[in-house]
């Protein structure tokens, strides 16, 4: 591992009790870089509590001053246990605005890449002959110095995303009711596992998307809004046809044989209260929208989305918001435009492909 010596900081791994200082540092970075979001304490605590994250070795925290003073640099390397067709090391971190320009960021990124190589080499996919990526994200209008740091390290832009919003003071258009054996339902705990399976099926043909395991599915729930989350369930699916289809994954097949409910379309929503002040309005956020491949072309995405938008409006939200891959293969960009969504910001994914 390359040493991090710039800035004269004292370095160590993370501890769960570091969540408040990590939160303060990440939000200081977000404010300085004019990011349209802020982190919550619950989000940081959730990340530090994940059993598959090695706090001693996957994190590097740099403190200034005698003993452990103020946190001035932070790095995280995240390799998900659910990755199947691409092995990804996702890098998060940065240097506090008060200590930028000292070369700390370049050394910290070199440490992240080295740790990422270790993690990828030790992963379950190491011998699977699949692509391996280092991944970073940044806003389109993020600091040019940060973009140059990534470029010097070998990162290239591979994907663009649009941050969209829809004014909920404009009446939400009516959506057709699912026909036949299809039924629109709100989220319930009993449908959470069928929802996970639907998400994995819906996103299997999306660029770079990887399955969510039960463990990783349980994460990222600190802002989850069950009352805004809707699904379409097929009460009488053609089990034989689905089992015969090469598109049906093993977990879905097992659930069908066991007679479990089949979620075929969904909209998962969250409420990111910390972002309201930054963006200047209240909003409900659609974290994920999808339709199983066997059920596409039936107009199910507008059904779940309009149900979610109405629920957000009923709870007093001014806007509905979401992000979309500009090269989404399912026609989502056109769907969102037809529902009244308009672009507000943009972001990008940068990769080093091994």
TrEMBL record:
CDD domains: NAT_SF. SUPFAM superfamilies: Acyl-CoA N-acyltransferases (Nat). Gene3D superfamilies: 3.40.630.30. Keywords: Acyltransferase, Transferase. Pfam families: Acetyltransf_1 (PF00583). Signal peptide: none annotated. This is GNAT family N-acetyltransferase. It comes from Myceligenerans pegani.
